[in-house]
Amino acid sequence: MNGVQDNSIGSTNESQFLGNYIVIKHAENEYSLIAHLHQYSIIVNEGQNVKYGDIIGKVGNSGNSTEPHIHFQVMNDKNIEACTSLKIRFINNRELIKGDVVCGLQAE
């Protein structure tokens, strides 16, 4: 999905709750979801291989979002309505607790 308009600050679009999003397959039963991207900013195509460092889109405020940010989750199925979330494994083995703010992770 790439054509959902960004919301004005404080309002949401609950009918398209993910807004503009992509799903990336990492391995069998391991996918990541990146949602709330800026309208028309997604620059990858379905089936395209992506690697660490590739630009895939821009932070936005689409979908059920009141301010610009991205929603990132790792899950066991590409179908968001049938999936179970998986624990995120970072390169440096850093572990996050719900509510932690991540401002940038450096590559090792």
Summarize the structure in words.
- The chain has 108 residues and is mainly β.
- It has a single domain, classed as Glucose Permease (Domain IIA), CATH 2.70.70.
- Helices cover 0% and strands 21% of the residues.
- It has strands at residues 20-27, 30-37, 71-75, 85-86.
- Strands 1-2-3-4 form a 4-stranded antiparallel sheet, with no helix packed on it.
- The N and C termini lie far apart (32 Å).
- The model has no long low-confidence stretch (mean pLDDT 90).
Strand % is 15-25%
Going by CATH, the architecture would be Distorted Sandwich
Helical percentage: under 10%
Q: Largest sheet, described in full?
A: 4 strands, antiparallel
Terminal Cα separation, in Å?
Answer: 32 Å
Q: Domain count, please report it.
A: 1
Round the mean pLDDT to the nearest integer and report it.
90
Named CATH topology: Glucose Permease (Domain IIA)
Strand order of the largest sheet: 1-2-3-4
Structural class: mainly beta
Order of helices and strands: EEEE
Round the Cα radius of gyration to an integer and report it.
Answer: 14 Å
| Low-pLDDT regions | none
Number of strands: 4
